[in-house]
Structure prediction request, 612 residues.
Amino acid sequence: MSPLLLVLDLAGIFVFSLSGGLAGVRNRLDVFGVLVLAALTGLGGGILRDLLIGAVPPASLADWRYLVVPVVAGLVAFRFHPRLSRIERHIARFDALGLGLFCVTGAVKALQFGLNPFAAALLGMLTGVGGGVLRDLMAGRTPLVLREEIYALAALAGASVAVVAWAGGWYAPWVAVLAAAVCIVIRLLALHHHWQMPHAGNLD
Amino acid sequence: MSPLLLVLDLAGIFVFSLSGGLAGVRNRLDVFGVLVLAALTGLGGGILRDLLIGAVPPASLADWRYLVVPVVAGLVAFRFHPRLSRIERHIARFDALGLGLFCVTGAVKALQFGLNPFAAALLGMLTGVGGGVLRDLMAGRTPLVLREEIYALAALAGASVAVVAWAGGWYAPWVAVLAAAVCIVIRLLALHHHWQMPHAGNLD
Amino acid sequence: MSPLLLVLDLAGIFVFSLSGGLAGVRNRLDVFGVLVLAALTGLGGGILRDLLIGAVPPASLADWRYLVVPVVAGLVAFRFHPRLSRIERHIARFDALGLGLFCVTGAVKALQFGLNPFAAALLGMLTGVGGGVLRDLMAGRTPLVLREEIYALAALAGASVAVVAWAGGWYAPWVAVLAAAVCIVIRLLALHHHWQMPHAGNLD
Prediction:
């Protein structure tokens, strides 16, 4: 992994872990629970992907830097949560960067492990949203990603761009950047305009 | 896999995915969340089994037909949920067919991967009920299968018939049909007669 | 595995399964649901660890004795839950023994599979607490281990002792005993003195 990609990857994990740590503080977990929830949120998506493609032990367990980052993020969330809550809208924007990065790296890793394009796009999406789903399950609520705003769909769109390029034989670093940008732009627009996917009507 | 078995397998996934999609509509998920919950319900049991026996990537990720069927079922649930709700009792009967099929194919796959008969029967049961458990966890409720009616037990019974036959050396297609039938008949009788397993008494 | 270790391992699973079975009775599950929850609690931590280190099928599925013990524990919980509830404080002490044992055996198994010390300590902790987390998720509540008392931290401490000894090249049976004792003593002291980890302040 190139140094730039490593830094981006760790930055994405940091932001995801922050959101997990904040959820832990709000659920009145103790400091240790906050750290665990931060790590699960930051690393969970990649771990689920690695389990499903058979890349065990998961990459994040094989490199101590991937374990240190969520701990630091969790401590930051624990200590500075009032201040973080005030800038939560900005955190949501950084979160979009993480989402864009993870959906692409996740899809590409699945392709490298020989999965078909359709499955690779889904695993890219899972890499992006899996941590948040685990966070919400641990906090005892229906995963936010299933209920609100365009989040998983943005991840699926970014992953699909990468997968289509790969299948067409013209995957390259700039394509990865483009794919991540597609995800990030969709997500930021959805945040800004409060876009919603349609809900079913006529519920009794 | 024979064409007949493939069709049956996809039909079982379709019915399971319908129940997941309906749960999503009732949880007021948007259309994308409904599709995700449908896929998780239809494919989750087999994916859990494949993870536990080391068959990665899971079979359903390696074949696009297994990914298309839950999407179609989810769209049907999203669009036609009022009508589906009215015929839900009939859906429960089709669901029994899927359960019977999955508990047998799940147990046999575990045996083929070298698991002992006891574990294979459990994995057959897990294949049948796992998707519904994931559906209920995502929807934030105690899994129905743990609480109500004879469901997992029917799957265990069907899986056990297949496992005993395999251990005795007389496994054959007709045994698989018989094992699935055992599960289906128990489940349909339990549905019809509202059979319940005993609950513990004397709760304070 | 030595006969002594096997007996200890099964005893730990028995106690964990008891707590799962009691949770099932309190959630008004039927007898079958109680057995499933008992097994998930007793075996879940080890299964999660085995999935993450790639030791599939998980050890507990490959040995029928590991499947019989939770079933017996679940039946005991189902039948004798009023009596067990009265001695629950004593059960919590036995539970500490299981925790101490599992965090050490879990960490050592991860080291044997080539994981780095940091990850091995985390997997040791996961082996100890994973079953309880699954139990609470199935029962629809935020995992107790994240919320209350010093539990996961005790497991992490015990696992860390084993890992440090291993990395230093002086791991031996008596070190394993010492590491388990560290976990058990911390847990028992925390139980007795109601030690708590700090919680975040200033929640709006």
